[in-house]
Amino acid sequence: MAVLAKRPWELADRVLIQTSGLPKLQDLSKEIRLLHMQHGFNDDPIVCDYVVHHLAKERKYVAISYTWGDSTPTREIEVAGQTVRVHENCFQALRQARNYYLPTVQIKDLWIDAICIDQSNPVEKSLQVQSMSSIFGRAHVVAVYLGLDETTI
C-alpha cells in the first residue's frame, strides 16, 4: 500500500493566522481590506494598518499571490497596533513587496489573502474567494512570491 506524502497546500494541516480588530466590511463581495504599509528597510519590523477599499473605486494596490510553505505561523508583524503571527512565506512576501514597491512605484497598499480576509469567518472567506478575480484584476500590480532561493550552486 502506497503512503501519500503530505502536501503543504492541504487546508486541514494549516494553522490559520489569527487576526483581531479587523475593520468590518459592509459588502463582503465588493469590499476588501488592504494593508497600508509603513516604510522600512530590509530587516525592520513590518508595520501596517488596515484600510477598507471598495472594488468599484480607483486605488493603487499590489495583490500578492504566494506559496504557503510551512503550516505554522512563526513570524510576527504588526497590524493596526496588534501583533499578528504569520507563516514564513507570507512574511517574506510582505517584506519583499515593502522593500520593492514602496520605493520604486510608491504603492503602500497590499492585499494578501491570509491577513486581509477574516479566516475565522466562513461566509466572508467564501465570498472573498469568489471575488479573487476582481481583487487581482483591479490591482495596479500583481506580485507572485515563490519563496526564498534555497538552491546551492
UniProtKB/TrEMBL annotation:
A Pfam family it matches: HET
Residue stretches making up the Heterokaryon incompatibility domain: 61-149
Domain of life: Eukaryota
TM helices/strands, residue ranges: none
Protein name: Heterokaryon incompatibility domain-containing protein
Species of provenance: Zymoseptoria tritici (strain CBS 115943 / IPO323) (Speckled leaf blotch fungus)
